[in-house]
Write a structure and sequence with these properties.
The complex is a heterodimer. Chain A is an all-alpha fold. Chain A is about 75% helix and about 0% strand. The two termini of chain A are about 25 Å apart. Helices cover about 40% and strands about 25% of the residues of chain B. Chain B has nine helices and nine strands. The longest helix of chain B has 16 residues. The chains are: A mainly alpha, B alpha/beta. The interface between A and B is large, with 41 and 42 residues.
Chain lengths: ~260, ~250
C-alpha cells in the first residue's frame, strides 16, 4: 500500500521544490490575471488601512504613539500575510478539488504554496516600509533586518502553514469553518497588538494577550522593523508555538486527507 | 500469477455519504455523538470483496455499468483514496491520471498548464521544459498553446491532457474513458501511443465503454458488478459475459 500513497510519485525532495514552485507560480499568475495593479494591491491594502487607522486613532483619538503611521505599517504588513493566508486556507483544497480528486501528489503542498505566495508579497512590501521609514524619520533601516527578517519569516511561515493546513483539512468536511475564520480573524485583529502597543494593554488582560500566538509575532516584527532589535522572548515564544502548530496541522491533515477525494 | 504489479485482495470501499452532508459544525457542537453516528451510519458500498491481480506489462480493461465502481477502482490504484477493508498493493510508478487535463486552470495559457500539469504528474520542471515542444506538437496545438485554456474546445483540452500524459514515464498507466473525446484521427494517434507504452512494458488499466477499443488494446478484461470482480478473463469472453448479464436491462 505504501507505493500508492500520494507521496510516491517522485519521492525526492527536489520534485517537492518543483511542485511548490509550480503551484506558487500558478497562484501568482492566476491572481494577477486581468488586474491592473497586480502586486500593487498588497501594498495598497495595508496602506489604506494604515491611513484609516491613523485618522481614527491619531487624528481623532490622539493615541500616544510616536510615528504612528509607520508603527501601523510595521504591524499591518505581517498581519496582512497572516490574515490573507488564513482567509484563503478554508478554500485551499475545495478550490483545487479537481487536483485533489484526480491526481495523487502531496496535497499539503497546496497550502504551503499558498502561504508562500502571501509571504512573497509581504517580502516585497518591506522595501516600501524601509523607504517610508526613512522618509518619515521613524524607525531605522538596520543591518539586523538581514538576519532577523529571514528568521521571523520562517517562524511566521511555519505558524501560518500549520494553522492553514488544519483549517483547510477541516474545511473540506465542515464548510462552516470558513465563516468562523472570517469572524475569528476580525476579532483576533483587535486582540493582537497591531494598532496599539502591547504595553498599553491593562495588566489584567496581559496573560490573555500572551496566549494569542500572533501577539509574539507582531511584537517581534515591530521590534525588528522599527528599532532594529530582536525581541528574543517574543521570538522564542513564537517559534515554540509555530513548531507545535505545524505538528498539529500535519497530524490533522494526515488523519483527514484520505477522505478528501470522496468528500469533495 | 507470480509477482503481480497490482494486487487487490478482498478490497472493500465504502463511501461515507454524510461526510459532505449538512449539519456542519453546529451539529457537531450541539450533538457530537449523533453527528458522529450519522457520519458512520450513512454510507454506500461501492466495492466489497474485490480481488484482482494484474501482471507486469499486461493491459486490462475494466468494464461495468455506470456507478459500478470503475472509477473508484482507478482512484484506489492511483492512491487518491484508500480501501476501507482488504489490502491493495501497487508496485510501480503510477501515472496518477484519471481524467485528462485534470487541474488545468482555465485562465492560464496552454503552456503554463502543461508545466503545472507535468510537474503535478511527477515530472521535474526541467523535464517538462525539455519536452514542451514535443508535447505541443503531439497535441497539434502550436497555434493556440499561448492562449488561455478557457478558449480551448473540449477536444483541444483533452488532446493537450493526453499529450502531457503521453510524455510521462510511468510503469502503470490508468486510462479513464478518455479516448471518447477528440476526432478519429487523434484517437488513432492515441491508440498508437498506447501501443508504444505497451511495447515498453507499461502496465495499463483501461476503463471504457467502447468495446472496439477494448478489443484493440487489452489482453484481459474484468467486469465489475455487484461490488466485486464478477468476471475476469479473455476480452471476447468478458464481452460475451457482459452482454449476457446485462442484455435484459440494456
Amino acid at each position: 500500500m505504501e507505493a500508492a500513497s500520494p507521496g510516491h510519485v517522485s519521492p525526492q525532495w527536489k520534485h517537492y521544490v518543483d511542485l511548490v514552485l509550480a503551484l506558487t507560480i500558478k497562484e501568482i499568475k492566476v491572481r494577477y490575471k486581468r488586474t491592473v495593479l497586480g502586486y500593487g494591491w498588497s501594498l495598497l491594502n495595508p496602506m489604506v488601512f494604515a491611513v484609516t487607522y491613523w485618522i481614527a486613532f491619531k487624528a481623532i483619538l490622539n493615541v500616544k504613539i510616536e510615528g504612528y503611521f509607520i508603527f501601523l505599517l510595521a504591524g499591518l504588513f505581517p498581519w496582512q500575510w497572516l490574515n490573507n493566508s488564513l482567509q484563503l486556507a478554508p478554500r485551499a483544497f475545495i478550490n483545487n478539488a479537481s487536483l485533489v480528486k484526480k491526481i495523487a501528489f502531496p496535497r499539503y503542498l497546496i497550502v504551503a504554496s499558498s502561504v508562500l505566495t502571501e509571504g512573497l508579497h509581504f517580502v516585497l512590501c518591506l522595501p516600501v516600509l524601509a523607504a517610508l521609514a526613512l522618509l518619515f524619520g521613524r524607525g531605522t533601516v538596520s543591518p539586523a533586518w538581514l538576519w532577523g527578517a529571514p528568521i521571523l519569516f520562517v517562524v511566521q511561515g511555519m505558524m501560518t502553514y500549520g494553522i492553514a493546513l488544519a483549517v483547510a483539512s477541516f474545511c473540506v468536511f465542515f464548510r462552516d469553518l470558513e465563516r468562523l475564520i472570517g469572524l475569528g480573524m476580525t476579532v483576533l485583529f483587535f486582540v493582537t497588538p497591531v494598532i496599539y502597543e502591547r504595553q498599553m494593554v491593562p495588566a489584567m488582560f496581559q496573560p490573555l494577550i500572551a496566549l494569542n500566538p500572533f501577539t509574539h509575532l507582531i511584537v517581534a516584527w515591530r521590534g525588528l522593523l522599527l528599532d532594529g532589535t530582536m525581541e528574543w522572548r517574543a521570538l522564542g515564544m513564537a517559534a515554540l508555538i509555530a513548531t507545535a502548530v505545524v505538528v498539529v496541522g500535519q497530524f490533522v491533515f494526515d488523519r483527514l486527507q484520505w477522505k478528501f477525494a470522496e468528500a469533495l | 500469477m507470480n509477482d503481480p504489479i497490482i494486487e487487490f485482495d478482498r478490497v472493500g470501499k465504502t463511501y461515507a455519504l454524510a461526510l459532505h452532508r449538512g449539519g456542519g459544525i453546529k451539529n457537531l457542537i450541539l450533538n457530537p455523538p449523533r453527528a458522529w453516528k450519522n457520519m458512520r451510519a450513512e454510507s454506500r458500498v461501492v466495492l466489497a470483496d474485490f480481488s484482482l491481480q494484474v501482471a507486469r506489462g499486461e493491459s486490462v480493461a475494466v468494464m461495468g455499468r455506470n456507478g459500478a465502481g470503475k472509477s473508484t477502482l482507478l482512484a484506489l490504484i492511483a492512491g487518491v483514496i484508500r480501501p476501507t477493508t482488504g489490502t491493495l498493493s501497487v508496485k510501480g510508478r503510477v501515472s496518477p491520471l484519471l481524467e485528462l487535463g485534470a487541474g488545468f486552470h482555465p485562465e492560464l495559457t496552454g503552456r503554463d498548464n502543461v508545466m503545472l500539469n507535468g510537474v503535478l504528474l511527477g515530472m521535474r520542471r526541467a523535464e517538462v521544459a525539455a519536452r514542451m515542444d514535443s508535447i505541443v506538437a503531439f497535441a497539434e496545438l502550436e497555434d493556440s498553446i499561448d492562449e488561455p485554456v478557457r478558449t480551448f474546445s473540449t477536444g483541444m483540452t483533452a488532446r493537450l491532457g493526453f499529450s502531457v500524459a503521453a510524455h510521462l514515464d510511468p510503469e502503470i498507466l490508468l486510462i479513464d474513458e478518455v479516448l471518447a473525446v477528440g476526432d478519429t484521427a487523434f484517437q488513432a494517434k492515441c491508440i498508437g501511443k498506447i501501443r508504444e507504452f505497451q511495447r515498453r512494458g507499461v502496465t495499463i488499466v483501461f476503463v471504457s465503454h467502447e468495446l472496439q477499443q477494448i478489443r484493440e488494446i487489452c489482453h484481459r478484461a474484468v467486469v465489475v458488478a455487484e461490488h466485486r470482480a464478477a468476471f475476469v478473463g479473455d476480452v471476447p469472453e468478458a464481452i460475451a459475459w457482459y452482454d449476457r448479464a446485462f442484455a435484459k436491462i440494456a
